[in-house]
Design a protein that fits this description.
The longest helix is centred in the middle third of the chain and has 26 residues. The chain has 20 helices and 12 strands. The chain is of the alpha/beta class.
Length: 518
């Protein structure tokens, strides 16, 4: 699951549905077999192309272009070329320019093309010193896209109550997964085999070549931490300074990552949100203890199971899974706790809700799932590392996690069953060791629900010589999140090469009070 974004209640279903999968990471296998031969030399027709820069849109100074890349970097003479959309925000102070800072988006499924403008707006000192560049990775956005189900066909994939472990309910999830994979085969053909992190980092290195740079620095959040780790491992001579924010375990597999997420989402819900909600019982009337608040949430969930709530003029319903999806999406960032709490309070007295409150619920809960996001998401996560093809085993695992970590564990099978049916990948495996790399700066929150801290620690150990900034908080995405300590560490490293002498701990952004309370 893993799109890096500050979650908003209005992104509810889309972001929440992807939450168990996140956000926002491609995971190289911890133990590699014999080293797979690298790709052949890059054909001249790719290295001599010119980037035709033009404004990305009216106003602003972000430039966009397109570049052609091989469908398969290991066999560049076969198949149609792909198009990669790239962007560039030139350094605002050419006299201070020190190079290129490359970015990538999380997900898999996130779009990175327009992100440089926002980064430099929030960190002008970085924008003064670097050309900040990014791209939509292959398979998504304005780049060549992978296609599976349409939005209309995909609606309903996450509906219902995933805690229902009856044979009929489990079979429905398995059937939905097979149907989705069949649509990918029918509409994308073998392209689905080439939407991988390994192929993406070769796209990145061609981009570096076309920019005329010998080396680049890198910042990447969530799934983009794995893109950065792959790139640095495969092209160690091409990286200067690397910042990895909210880390996937780059020494593990996608299966291991998804097995770990139910714990971290449940931890965020029970140890951060529910105590916060109980603290403001006078405002939201949801119970004076975390246990009382949890019981009330479960009561609401049960009522929605028995009687799903029609919204958006009857075009959608709030059922247990949609409720959980919204909660999962909000767990990404504590600044959204008040909006979620207000929505829960409205649902608790729906028969008395005002027109304004009903419109808020429509907006927050009524957004459909994005089929294109999941086409990219599954293409990457199902191809990058090996998967057990035994769907019976995954059904048993989901039942166990649904009981132990119900918020996200219940929906585990809706993701793992897709990868159990995905065509087996032959992508090369890369062991992550940190050998030959500059020191890498890593950031991670202790209660990050999407990129769990335990995985970040394992990745930190695998990337020998890295420094880990642990943030005492639960937000996903630490840089530019309100911690002066974190921002100072990142800016000091990117601008001056100053890396902490050892691992450090920073305070995270404080959780907000309800509107009108200080």
């Amino acid at each position: 699951m893993f799109e890096f974004r500050k979650s908003r209640l209005t992104r509810s279903v889309v972001t929440g549905a992807m939450a168990t999968a996140i956000a926002a990471a491609v995971l190289p296998a911890a133990t590699a077999a014999a080293k797979t031969p690298g790709p052949p030399p890059v054909p001249e027709r790719y290295t001599t192309q010119k980037l035709a820069w033009q404004p990305c849109g009216p106003g602003g100074s972000l430039e966009c272009a397109q570049m052609k890349v091989p469908r398969d970097w290991y066999h560049p003479g076969t198949g149609e070329d792909l198009t990669i959309a790239v962007s560039r925000q030139r350094a605002s102070d050419p006299a201070r320019r020190r190079g290129v800072l490359m970015m990538a988006a999380g997900g898999p499924g996130g779009q990175g093309l327009l992100r440089p403008a926002n980064l430099v707006k929030r960190s002008p000192s970085i924008g003064a010193a670097y050309d900040v560049v990014s791209f939509d990775q292959r398979g998504v956005g304005q780049s060549s896209r992978v296609r599976c189900e349409t939005d209309a066909e995909f609606q309903g994939y996450f509906d219902g109550d995933s805690r229902d472990r009856s044979p009929a309910a489990v079979q429905r999830e398995l059937d939905n997964a097979r149907k989705f994979v069949d649509s990918c085969r029918a509409r994308s053909g073998d392209l689905m085999n080439y939407i991988t992190t390994d192929q993406t980092v070769h796209d990145m290195d061609l981009y570096r070549t076309l920019l005329g740079e010998k080396k680049v620095s890198y910042y990447g959040p969530s799934y983009a931490t794995v893109i950065g780790t792959y790139y640095a491992t495969e092209f160690p001579q091409r990286v200067e300074r690397v910042v990895l924010d909210s880390n996937i375990d780059a020494a593990g597999t996608w299966a291991e990552f998804e097995e770990g997420q139910p714990l971290s989402f449940q931890r965020r819900f029970e140890q951060d949100f529910l105590p916060w909600l109980a603290k403001y019982d006078d405002t939201y009337h949801y119970g004076r203890t975390a246990a009382e608040a949890k019981a009330k949430y479960e009561k609401l969930r049960g009522a929605l199971r028995d009687h799903p709530l029609p919204i958006v003029g009857g075009k959608a319903v709030i059922d247990p899974n949609r409720l959980d999806s919204v909660v999962i999406s909000v767990m990404y960032n504590g600044s959204n706790f008040p909006a979620l709490a207000k929505s829960l309070a409205v649902l608790d007295h729906w028969d008395q809700a005002t027109a304004e409150e009903r419109a808020m619920i429509d907006k927050g809960f009524g957004q459909p799932a994005n089929a294109d996001f999941f086409a990219e998401f599954f293409s990457v996560t199902c191809s990058d590392t090996p998967w057990d093809r035994d769907t019976g085993q995954w059904a048993k695992r989901a039942a166990k996690d649904a009981a132990k970590y119900p918020l996200a564990g219940a929906r585990e099978l809706t993701y793992t069953a897709v990868c159990a049916n995905w065509p087996e990948s032959k992508v090369p495996r890369t062991k992550i060791t940190g050998k030959g790399l500059p020191p890498i700066l890593m950031l991670n929150g202790r209660h990050d629900p999407a990129t769990h801290y335990e995985g970040a620690q394992r990745s930190h150990r695998a990337l020998r010589g890295s420094r880990l900034v642990t943030v005492d908080g639960g937000d996903h995405g630490q840089y530019q999140d309100g911690s002066a300590c974190v921002d100072s560490a990142v800016n000091g490293y990117l601008l001056e090469g100053k890396l902490p002498a050892h691992d450090i701990t920073c305070e995270g952004a404080p959780l907000p009070a309800p509107a009108g309370q200080g």
